[in-house]
Amino acid sequence: QVQLVESGGGLVQAGGSLRLSCAASGRTFSIYAIGWFRKAPGKEREGVSCIYSDGRTKYADSVKGRFTISRDIAKNTVYLQAKSLKPEDTAVYYCAADGSSWPDPCGDDMDYWGKGTQVSVSS
User: Fold this and answer.
1) pLDDT score recorded for residue 3
2) Rounded to an integer, what is the distance from CA 13 to the centroid of its chain?
3) Are strands 10-13 and 18-26 parallel, antiparallel or unpaired?
4) Could you give the CA distance from residue 113 to residue 96 in angstroms, rounded to a whole number?
5) Rounded distance between C-alpha atoms, residue 36 and residue 11, angstroms
6) How far is it, in rounded angstroms, from Cα 71 to Cα 21?
7) Helix/strand/coil percentages in the chain, nearest 5
8) For residues 111 and 105, what is the distance between their CA atoms, to the nearest angstrom?
9) pLDDT value at position 116?
10) What is the DSSP letter of 103?
11) What is the mean pLDDT of residues 25-39?
12) Average pLDDT for residues 20-48, to the nearest whole number?
């Protein structure tokens, strides 16, 4: 079992920045990737970014160049540095982990989910 706890959300003005954190605990050795997803009211859940256990990363086109995913292995924590925030970035942001190497650990079949942290961007 893996537990994930997000933090760092808040209210910022357009153009501002936030750093979201995802702290993993439990059987973290079984994690192949950790990704960030977001859910805005009235919209489907969207994959934002993901980092594989080997450090490779991926980003949604909507955030590429603005968001950066990183990790602190010693702290079992993955971060999402979100800059140049836009109102359309407003959503509940969730981190999720995949405990399987196949299919793609950064796909949409994540096994463990946090409870989310709210990001609100005002115009």
Assistant:
1) 98
2) 20
3) unpaired
4) 4
5) 18
6) 9
7) 5, 50, 40
8) 10
9) 98
10) S
11) 96
12) 97
